[in-house]
Amino acid sequence: MGTDRYAYQSRLRRVSPLPKLALAAVALVMCLCCDSVWVGLVTVLVMGVLITALGGLPATVYLHFLKVPLAFLVIGGITILIHSYPAGTTVVAALPVGERLWGFTAHDLYQAARLFCKALGAVGCMYFLSLNTPITDLTMALEKLHVPHLLVELMELIYRFIFVLAETAANIRLAQESRLGYQGFRRSMNSLGTLSSMVFLRAWRKGQSIYTALESRGYTGSLTTLAGDYTPGLWLLPLTAGVAGGQLLVFCLERMAVG
Known about the structure:
single chain, 259 residues, mainly alpha
C-alpha cells in the first residue's frame, strides 16, 4: 500500500514513465526468458542498486517490500521441490512414508532454485517500476502505448477501490477492537468472520456513492488526468541496453560453466 508514497519521493518521479517502463519490461523479459538462477539473482540485485542509486530510496525500503512476496515464493518453491519416489531411489533428502519416499533430488533442488530466483528477479523489476512511478503516470504511459482504453480505466478504478476496501476493513476492525472483539481465539474468529462478511458489502455501497459522485461531476466513462511536466529520460535507454546485456552475459557465463 505504500509504494505510491515512495514513488512520489523518488528522484525519478519527474522522469517520463516510458523509459522506466521500458527498462523494467526489458529486464523482466530477459529474466524470464533466460530461466536461470544467476540471472534472477543478478536482476534482483541490479534493480535494488538502481532503486537506491537512481531513485534515492533507502535499500531497507526495497528489502522491506521484497519480504512481502517472499512467503509465496517459498511455498511455490516447496511445491516444486518435494516429490514422491519409489523406495530405493537416490535422493538428497527424503522422509519414508509407507513404501514411498517423499523428498527431493539434486535436479528437483535446481528446478526449485531456478523458479525461486527467476520469480524473485521478476518481482525486483516490478518494484523498480512501482517504487519510481506513481500509478497515474503509469496509466498515462499505457495510454500513450495505445493499450485499450477500457483496460486502463479498469486499472485506475480497481486501484482506487483497493484503498476503499482497506479503509473500510480498518474502520470495522477499529470498531471491533474498541468493543474487545479480539479477546480470545473464539471471539477473534467470530469478529474476523463478521469483518469478512461486512467489508465487501460496505465497500460496495461506498463504491456506488463514489460512482454517483463521479457522474454528478460529468463523468462519461473516461477519467481525464493532466500529464505531468516530465524530463525525457532518454539516458535510461542506454542503461536498459546495459542491463539486458549484463543479464545475457551472466546467462552465457552460467551456460559455459555448466557445460
